Amino acid sequence: MSMLLAGLPLLAVADASPRPRLYVVTELGAPAATLDNGRLAGFAVDKVRQILARAGVEYEIDVLPWKRAYLLAQTRSDACIFSVSRIPERDALFKWVGPTHTTDWTLYGRAGRKYQVTVLEDARKYRIGAYFGDVRGETLSAQGYLVDTVHERLANPRKLLLDRIDLWVSSTQNGGPLIADNGWSGKIVPVLTFRQTGLYLACNTDVADTLITRMNMALSAMNSEGVSNAIERKYNYGPRR
Prior knowledge:
The protein is of the alpha/beta class and 241 residues long.
């Protein structure tokens, strides 16, 4: 009996240990992350909140410019960022939870212009607009393509229509809504989809492996229960051409 009683304070101390806490960052970009009456919403936001809650994680989510958020997640030990394309060049930079969803890499052009682009290599002769810090533009630039970056998402389609760039690299999930919402349907069209990647919650390498495992298990349960698909349907997420 004395041995059993002696163990009780230790159990109480263990149960009282604080829950893990993460500082999570993202950027605004509908339908993944947007402001709804001042509250952060979106299908990626809802998924990440579910993952963290199921894994027993306390958290704070902040909205930052993408490049700043990306660098912070690499330098702050309790930080994670979403949604990040996982490519081989980035694999060792983070610990990964996901994929939470997938995205494509698509070149858009002006309707009516005859582009001679059937494979990505054909685009080397064109000026390609990209969003600053986006993996698509960074990858193309590293491969020697002529890439012109901007800091505001609407700038690329506007430059495309003004003939200041030849092509714009984005995704059908992000580019499609921008085109439709700004009255550019029929003026800007997809030219070539050349890659698919998974998008992840990417965490600093100091985040505990056990916590990464718990979050991945939470996401797996969400997927098997149909929760992830239900969240995407709520926000009408999917390829839009």
